[in-house]
Amino acid sequence: MIPATKPYLPEREKYDALLNGIWERNWITNHGPLVREFEKKLSDHLDLEHVSFVSSGTMALELMLKTLPENGEVITSPFSYVATANAISWQGHTPVFADILPGKLTIDPQKVREKITSDTRAILATHIYGNACEIEDLESIGKEFNIPVFYDGAHCFGSKYIGKSLLNYGDMAALSTHATKIFHTVNGGVVVSQNAAQKTKIDLMRNFGHNGLNNFEEIGINGKNSEFHAAMGLAILEDAEMLLEKRKKQSAYYFKNLIDSNFELIQIKNEGETNGSYFPLICRSKQKSEDLIALANEAGIELRRYFNPALNTLKFLNQSSCPVAEDISARIICLPLYHDLSQLEQDKILNEIKKFHG
Ligand SMILES: *Cc1c(COP(=O)(O)O)cnc(C)c1O
């Protein structure tokens, strides 16, 4: 079976060497030397000034939202992983869904503007598949209404916009370093702040609000991450360029072979560069996408429906109508992509897909 995705593991010796240090120091959590080294190396690698390593991408989203002074509505994309909308609700805000752009699948700034009310506290937009949102338009909406623009950058390790890391945009951004992402720390996430004051607040909140041993600055949570997770991050960071290069090559190979097919491919934002993490295909109908998944399965190929269903249709969230997101999520599938997927396997996948007409 060719799986849809597969987590990357670094050379065992590299990880073991870092573990030896953990045993020598007997320091396994609470902002240890590996966590600090990981934050430093990650910020150098992505050229980001303020990063905070936390326990998950979802925790990064929640901490980011927790910086809002008041609860209210947060305008967000219905085409994302459920964690985006859940984080909003879990923080006591109301997710308000603004539909997506049909080609790029990122939030439509015009729809965002239509959803602004006096209760709007923030915009939380997802750079879906590492494809940059309409950053300038969202920024000007944020400025006009005096609300922050946050990004769910879960997919954005190695994605760029105008030559800079995509995580560098917005008032804050959240990265996921979960095992299924192209760069991972087993479980984990990163809050990217734009200034030292924001970072200080995030760092306090992720550690129960501790400011010194017996002093608490504000309400916090246990959002820290451990030395073991940082060790995995440090080991994989050394392979990051190789991983990105491979993934981009694999994506380009799919692209070259599918550009003239019956499938619709997503449109990458001008001056944007994705990390090639995902290869979404839009089938002509829901039925066709289901038939394709079944056919591929028979041939030993697993296809995933990233991202389905549209979040605005979930019964525990704020239901509303987003026809574009509902339509796209009903007929989108993602092709297998992982570090050691061979060209031979890609050919097999392409053969199966080409037998099938859209
Ligand atoms: C993976 C993912 C998350 C959640 O990250 P975790 O690290 O799994 O908590 C949030 N948003 C999107 C778009 C994701 O794909």
From TrEMBL:
Q: Is Transferase found in the keyword set?
A: yes
**Could you name the active-site residues?**
181
Superkingdom to which the source organism belongs: Bacteria
CDD domains according to UniProt? AHBA_syn
Q: What keyword terms does UniProt attach to this protein?
A: Aminotransferase, Pyridoxal phosphate, Transferase
Record Pfam families: DegT_DnrJ_EryC1
UniProt family annotation:
Belongs to the DegT/DnrJ/EryC1 family.
Q: Say yes or no: keyword Transferase present.
A: yes
A Gene Ontology biological process in which this protein takes part is: polysaccharide biosynthetic process
A single GO molecular function, which one?
A: transaminase activity
Name-wise, this protein is DegT/DnrJ/EryC1/StrS family aminotransferase
Modification N6-(pyridoxal phosphate)lysine occurs at = 181
Q: What phylogenetic lineage does the species belong to?
A: Bacteria, Pseudomonadati, Bacteroidota, Flavobacteriia, Flavobacteriales
Q: Which InterPro entries match?
A: DegT/StrS_aminotransferase (IPR000653), PyrdxlP-dep_Trfase (IPR015424), PyrdxlP-dep_Trfase_major (IPR015421)
